[in-house]
Amino acid sequence: MDFIVELPESRGNTVILTIIDRFSKMGHYVPLQKLPSAAELVPIFIANVVRIHGVPQEIVSDRGTQFISGFWRGFCKNVGIDLSFSSAYHPQTNGAAERANQNVEKYLRCFISEQQDNWSDLLPWAEYAINSAVSESSGHSPFFTVYGFDPPVLPVMFPDSTIPALDKQLASLKETWGRVRRALEESSTIQKTKADRHRRQAPVYQVGDRVWLSSRNIKLLVPSMKLAPRYIGPYKILRRLNPVSYALALPPHFKIHNVFHVNLLKPLLCNRYTKVHAPPPPVSVWRARRNSKLRPFCARLSRG
Length: 304
Description:
With 304 residues, the protein is of the alpha+beta class. The chain contains nine helices and ten strands. It has helices spanning 38-53, 65-68, 70-79, 95-111, 119-132, 142-147, 164-198, 285-290, 295-303; strands at 2-4, 15-20, 27-32, 58-61, 82-85, 210-214, 231-242, 245-248, 259-261, 265-267. The strands form three sheets. The protein has a five-stranded antiparallel sheet with strand order 9-8-7-6-10, with no helix packed on it.
């Protein structure tokens, strides 16, 4: 589950709720007037998921305020839904929803009006087209995976009518449908090829291993991030949540979630020239300067 926000107003709606089934890849796109609260999200979820497909076993989402609230957690716990949240600074954990967001945005971008105020009318057709497209991973459309048959498609030719405006609308609909299906199929093939080109097997860490943590998504208290270290730590691994997510023992003053994707970690490599030492105890430089008897001793310490 995810949200597409900050859209131009269309029939009073400015937000799209994206709901993707991880197995079949079937998606539902719900237009909303605004970002809902946790209490408002529950009836929306019941109307668009539970009513159609039943109660899911698990929900994967980001750490938005709606999803981490006590109200939403309590609702899911009472109906038997396990909650999983995306790793910190790694939206690919919820990749199905992220990819669905990109697909529906691409569809709306191609066919929306200049005023961009008709995307609510195009959203049902976007959902129908995406759910009817063949998935590269399964070889079937999401519709076929769920219902066992492909949905009826638009006829090759529409019969002539006595209403010119209707003929024009049907012809435009047929052209749009064909363009969308071709674009989705080509996009899926290109994206898979590019992604596989850069993928490699993720390293495996054990509990207790020390790793470096990438600092590219962490705001360090330094004058310039350009000169800041690219990795911080090392930190000990507390547990392995799944093959690509690990929980780290972060310092208490870090106000961030401690679960990270494996591509943000780097192993701590030690040899006979590099060893991990405990940090030395702090030295009060101010007291040493005030006591003249300690100056020669401090000088010797600094030299050796």
